[in-house]
Automatic annotation (TrEMBL):
Record-annotated membrane-spanning stretches: none
InterPro entries: HAD-like_SerB (IPR050582), HAD-like_sf (IPR036412), HAD_hydro_SerB1 (IPR006385), HAD_sf (IPR023214)
Presence of the UniProt keyword Hydrolase in the record: yes
A Pfam family of this chain: HAD
Molecular functions (GO terms): hydrolase activity; metal ion binding
Protein name: Putative hydrolase, haloacid dehalogenase-like family
Keyword Metal-binding: yes
Stored Gene3D superfamilies: HAD superfamily/HAD-like (3.40.50.1000), SG protein - dephosphorylation function (1.20.1440.100)
Length: 220
């Protein structure tokens, strides 16, 4: 049983970009969505997220309308292409190196992201990380709805979901490493034993200085 685990945020931490935003862009470029309001909603989402005032329920209720008539297997086909074309080219080399180090040390790695889980899990698999959590969505007629299932992996929800997972796995690690770029992850930072910020936003940089967290700058 491992005495240590490592938790990574995904967007702007392991990859140089936001997978949720890039996914909408991908659907737009492929002509799968044609209503510009989805692009505008994503831009507003990023602004609200950065300001720490995002209503995740409202955002996903609108955003997932684009897929509510699409069978999940078709979504998965698009996701495979999306990861190859949009995500792999923007994965930080330093992140890959860090993941390899933890793998060599047999330290379990978990990705926890505030993006929907069907995107997060596909990206995580491409990064060689089998354990990943995102925001789970209610399914109806084998399609994704805009309703959140369970606790969303957002802010303090990341801590709750991690605790839930640790209980399920019968794990009680003595040491938790955590990597993130965002002030939204402060609850997870305070829960972890050792924090590494990656290209942190201004507010998280301040917290990192106050707490003595190591600040990393990763580039493509």
């Amino acid at each position: 049983m491992s005495q240590q685990i490592t938790v990574f945020d995904l967007d702007d931490t392991l990859i140089c970009g936001d997978s949720s935003l890039l996914w909408t862009e991908y659907l737009w470029e492929k002509g799968i969505i044609t209503d510009h309001r989805f692009i505008e909603a994503d831009q507003k989402m990023m602004a609200d997220y950065s300001a720490g005032k995002l209503d995740m329920h409202d955002y996903l209720a609108f955003n997932l309308q684009s897929l509510n008539q699409v069978h999940y297997e078709q979504v998965d086909i698009w996701l495979t292409d999306f990861v190859e074309t949009k995500i792999k080219p923007i994965s930080y080399p330093a992140a890959k190196k860090q993941l390899d180090i933890y793998r060599q040390q047999n330290i379990p790695i978990i990705i926890i992201s505030a993006t929907v889980s069907f995107v997060v899990k596909k990206v995580a698999a491409a990064l060689g990380v089998p354990t990943a959590m995102g925001i789970d969505m209610v399914m109806k007629d084998d399609c994704y709805t805009g309703s959140i299932l369970g606790i969303p992996t957002f802010r303090e929800g990341k801590v709750a979901r991690l605790q839930q997972w640790l209980t399920e796995q019968n794990l009680s690690p003595q040491h938790i490493f955590f990597y993130t770029d965002s002030m939204n992850d402060l609850p997870m930072c305070l829960f972890a034993n050792e924090v590494f910020t990656v290209n942190a936003d201004i507010r998280l940089q301040k917290e990192a200085r106050n707490h003595g967290w190591k600040q990393l700058n990763w580039v493509l």
